[in-house]
Amino acid sequence: MKKLTLAAAIGLLISVAGCAIPVTPGEPEPQVLSRLGKPDATYQNGNERLLEYGRGAFGQQTYMAHIGADGNLISYEQVLTLAKFATIKVGQSTKNDVLRTVGHPIDTIFYNRVKLEGWNYGFKESGVWNSLMTVYFDQSGIVAKLENGPDPRFEHSRFGL
After folding, report:
1. CB 111 within 8 A of CB 118
2. Does 116 lie in the same domain as 55?
3. Confidence of residue 157 (pLDDT cuts 50, 70, 90)
4. pLDDT for res 58
5. How far is CA 130 from CA 92, 99, 111, 152, in A?
6. How far is CA 82 from the centre of its chain?
7. Which domain holds residue 124?
8. Can you list the positions of beta strands (E) in the chain?
9. What is the pLDDT of residues 33-85, one digit of tens each?
10. Residue 17 sits in the same domain as residue 50
């Protein structure tokens, strides 16, 4: 059995601690940024802003810091959940709506035969199962359907990978 070197142990602790950086509602945006760092993306939502932070192994977590019009943190939540995906409305939500709801996908693909663009989101369904949610957009950028299933990145024996 290999022993962890001191540097490896410190790196492991930092990476684990990085997943649980505390931010508290009411904190001013500069303090949130100093704790969380530069966001992966920023979205304007009326007078409020959303700061996207991709976290976790295999991109299975995305956090949104919701900054109010007063410049203070309203909430900080993990958005790759079934509850959040359920707020995406088929026939109504746009690509921008999806980005503001669950952030950037891990990858995209265009299905030429059916003329749909798929955005893939890997996530831990119910905190346990490695799942892949695909949000499909029609040619006008409106959500056509959502589809959830096992994440093939973790299904080596099942899919012969």
Report:
1. yes
2. no
3. low
4. 83
5. 28, 21, 23, 9
6. 12
7. 80-161
8. 41-45, 48-55, 61-67, 73-78, 107-111, 116-125, 129-137, 143-150
9. 999 999 999 999 899 999 999 987 788 999 999 999 999 999 999 999 999 99
10. yes
Gap between the Cα atoms of 22 and 132, Å rounded: 28
**Claim to verify: residue 117 and residue 47 sit in the same structural domain:** no
Q: Which of 133, 136, 138, 135 is nearest to 152 (CA)?
A: 133
Look up residue 148 and give its two tokens: 């959830």
- Which tokens sit at 92? 């109504």
Of 2-11, 78-87, 142-151, the poorest mean pLDDT is in: 2-11
> Looking at the structure, do residues 52 and 92 belong to the same domain, yes or no?
no
SS3 106: coil
- For residue 24, which phi and psi values (nearest 5 degrees)? -120, 135
Locate tokens 């746009």: which residue?
Answer: 94
Q: How far apart (Å, rounded) are the C-alpha atoms in residues 21 and 2? A: 29
**Contact between 43 and 99 (Cβ < 8 Å):** yes
Q: Are residues 64 and 87 in the same domain?
A: no
Residue where a domain stops, chosen among 78, 109, 125: 78
Tokens of 126: 């119910």
Output the six-digit token pair for 7. Answer: 């540097």
Instruction: Give yes or no: residues 45 and 101 share one domain.
Output: no
User: Which of 78, 109, 143 is a domain's end point?
Assistant: 78
Number of domain units in the chain = 2
